[in-house]
Design the sequence.
């Protein structure tokens, strides 16, 4: 069944049609939350809230990219969560070892198919990328995630954040430069083909 038909049926209250849309876009919506919020549990909550909100507001969908419309809802929910965190910062509940030190890579989070050193390198690289994303202004971060992670084109990204295409291009260019500068500090973690020149 075509996406437009699924949307039409979902608007009429067909949960099965909406569930098929959820299955199509759940990874994209979750990844948007993960990259903006930096935590898997918060990303899962944001994704769930985004789909609930989308179902309740399907009548407000006016056409265009359905993916961009969903990601706009998810992005706005993430902005709300980031604002809430600023008002009431939380203490993370990270696993600790016997000495009370935080465990950066708990055993249960490592893929059993990887060798320990590969897992450690992957985790360190993911942390470095997330660190650099976290240090971007949230408007820049949202655009990078939409375009470079989610694969939206400029028009879809503009629709997702409700800004002109020119603003998207400008923010993306500036965000990429900041990420590049930040990742220079983690040069040794990058695969050889992605290592940036200059020290």
Sequence:
């Amino acid at each position: 069944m075509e996406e437009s038909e699924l949307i039409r049926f979902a608007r009429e209250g067909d949960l099965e049609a909406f569930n098929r849309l959820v299955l199509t876009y759940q990874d994209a919506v979750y990844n948007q939350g993960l990259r903006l919020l930096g935590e898997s549990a918060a990303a899962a909550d944001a994704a769930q809230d985004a789909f609930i909100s989308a179902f309740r507001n399907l009548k407000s969908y006016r056409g265009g990219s359905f993916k961009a419309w969903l990601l706009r809802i998810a992005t706005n929910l993430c902005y709300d969560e980031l604002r809430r965190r600023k008002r009431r910062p939380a203490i993370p509940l990270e696993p600790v070892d016997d000495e009370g030190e935080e465990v950066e890579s708990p055993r249960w989070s490592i893929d059993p198919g990887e060798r320990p050193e590969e897992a450690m390198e992957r985790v360190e690289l993911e942390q470095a990328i997330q660190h650099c994303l976290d240090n971007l202004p949230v408007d820049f971060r949202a655009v990078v995630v939409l375009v470079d992670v989610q694969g939206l084109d400029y028009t879809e990204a503009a629709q997702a954040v409700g800004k002109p295409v020119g603003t998207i291009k400008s923010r993306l260019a500036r965000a990429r430069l900041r990420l590049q500068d930040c990742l220079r500090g983690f040069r040794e973690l990058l695969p050889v083909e992605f290592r940036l020149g200059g020290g």
In short: The chain has a mean pLDDT of 84. Residues 15-37 form the longest helix (23 residues). The domain at 107-199 is CATH 1.10.10.10 (Arc Repressor Mutant, subunit A). The two ends are 53 Å apart (CA to CA).
